[in-house]
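Re: Re: token formats

Sure, here are both.
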Amino acid sequence: MPNGVIVPTDYKYGFSKPESYVFKAKKGLSKSVVEQISSMKNEPGWMREQRLKALEIFFSKKMPKWGADLYAINFDDIYYYIKPIDRQAKSWDELPKEIRETYDAIGIPEAEKKFLAGVTAQYESEAIYHSFKKQWEDKGVIFLDFDSGLRQYPELVKQYFGRAVPAADNKFAALNSAVWSGGSFIYVPKGVSVDIPLQAYFRINAANMGQFERTLIIVDEGAYVSYIEGCSAPVYTVDSLHAAVVEIFVKKGARCRYTTIQNWSSNVYNLVTKRAFVEEEGTMEWVDGNIGSRTSMKYPSCYLVGQRARGEILSLSMAGYGQHQDVGGKLMFLAPDTSGEIISKSVSHSSGRTSYRGLVKVIKGAERVKCNVRCDALILDEKSRSDTYPTMQVGEDNVRISHEASVSKIDADQLFYLMSRGLSEIEATSLIVNGFIEPVVRELPLEYAVELNRLIQLNMEDAIG
């Protein structure tokens, strides 16, 4: 890939550690690399076959011509698999010193101390540490990294793998299906409510690295789970690629909340496919925060396949110099009496670009659907840009669907008033921006809301200087 854009030097997670790995595949994508990944993981034959079929699909599909500009990606200049340690650690003390220091700086051990139900840490291609509270294991809850899930529950993984996001869905889903490594596997039994969030943190350390985690969540009837993921990477002058796939199955009367705080550095292409199938009276909630990356294309979706199913998508994006956040959501109403909402908030500054891209589809026979879409954009300077690309496909008359959109700038009177009360321009602007994105932030756990506010403050410092 060519040199990336110049990024702010105070990016919080922009440090890197010396590379020290057990194994590092050669650059480039080929059948031999895919077979090597599968062999090193000692996978069943059916998974290897799925990988190889997905590789053929990837090579056959053209790059998308819509959305963000992806033509600078050089697939031959990427490492598709890096194994940082021999085996997954059971305690922080077992991790190599440089990896432990990385996660100490990010704050993972501290997060675990705050009584999170479970923590998985992924470094490069592998989950390197995993902890899960015994109280949930005793209730039958499964929370593993995806590789362990495949080893321990191969039939369950085989039943659901690729059902929500088949390899042929898009070029980057095919890429993930061919070279996936790491990620999370979660199963919540009937009637069990995991009332403390499960957490995963994904870290890219190496230059020219591709990270391709796979996440599968199954929430059985009447169950509940909340899952939170965070992402970061060092700043390099070459670009990295993150192409994940998330598949979620929400059974009858169940509920799942999936929260992302994405703060990749500005040399990362973030191209993710996230999809949930929601059965009768189930609820799926996506809370999606996109702060970092050079380019993001991500549209969490809900396929509402059962009566009275509900889907909610809260999307936040912020784009500064050299960034394009092309994000949004999809609601597919495939049964009567289903409902959903998309709320999108975007902030662009310092020549950055944000785009909302959404799809609402109601099939014939899906009567009494209720859906509301609201897109609000805040532009902080004349060189920044915001676009909205909503698509509505309604095949039924007896529905209630609304769409609202607004574009605004910082109110000069508000800014003057706050500065007259003793705030600096940066502090005043940050306060206004935090008020603008409040509908998303209030849905975050406290520690994540605080972290997001800090990231907003850093972005405002870069914007105003």
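Second one below.
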Amino acid sequence: MRATREEGKAFASQTKESVEFYERRFSRGYLEEWPVDKRRQLMDVLHSLRLPAGGEALDFGCGNGVLTEVVRQALPGWTIFGADISRNAIDNARSRFPECTFFVLDDCRYESKTFDLVFSHHVLEHVLDLHEAMDDIVGFLKPVSWMLHFLPCGNEGSFEQGVCLLRKDGIDAKLANRFFFEDEGHLRRLDTRVLCQLCEARGYTLQAEYYSNHYYGAIDWITREHPRFALKFTNGAKAVDDAARRRLRRLQLFLMAIMALRLAVNVTNRFRAKRQRRIRHYLWLVAALPFYPFSYAVDWYWRRKAWLEWRMKKTDRRGSEMVLFFGTSGTDNKV
């Protein structure tokens, strides 16, 4: 059954605490940039979907608008909008990407606006009430339309799930199977079956599915994070047994070695992404530059392996990130 706009405004009416949480994050520079690989992946997906030459698309939960701009570049005949609950994020997006139109989700001027496509990138794991949020998304869509969602994947068999199974607290059933290492803003980790059920109940059927971060993609993103994350990811304090603790220890050494070799590139990339730079950022950059050529070679290797894995295994459901594309009856975009 297809929901109407009046049946749900969950995302636009998040609790005061939830809105304040993301206002603080975006005021501190949250997600100011996305890696080139992520933008390239989004481009690859959009080009594969055989969408019409023109239409209107909404980036639902657009944040600072970085990926909204990628959607605009990938769909040059389309008019692209972005919406978010955070006014700080929308102000940032408007100043950076003036060729897209951005609005706060409670803006009454867009109350009756509908779109041909709604895109979301790592939004559904953050919303308080998933069913109401899905109704809100559908309320932004025309009777014949599409949805494209990127989000963490809870299917069995990913590298990250395998690490979680080595720990007693690896997968939290009380938080809808969230993995132990995930961001505090993540409230769930869906699998393909559950998201398909949610969309089918609203008149949308699966037309394409892609998966990433099976192994090389996971190693790539983990070793681009701060070293504290790798230490948390491989912490054996809550391992299920001694064998699991030893495996986590070996994995920790492996990841820390790769991070050390990629450090100069990681420091340089973070410096470039910073919109507000302080003296310590310049000092880190100066220290990293002598090691950059060797670090670049190591970084190129892991990025290349991750991209080849995406190209070769993107239909394999055992990835830790999923990309699901849905359409109503009357659309014919099966890939």
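The two ends are 25 Å apart (CA to CA). The first helix runs from residue 16 to 27.
- S.
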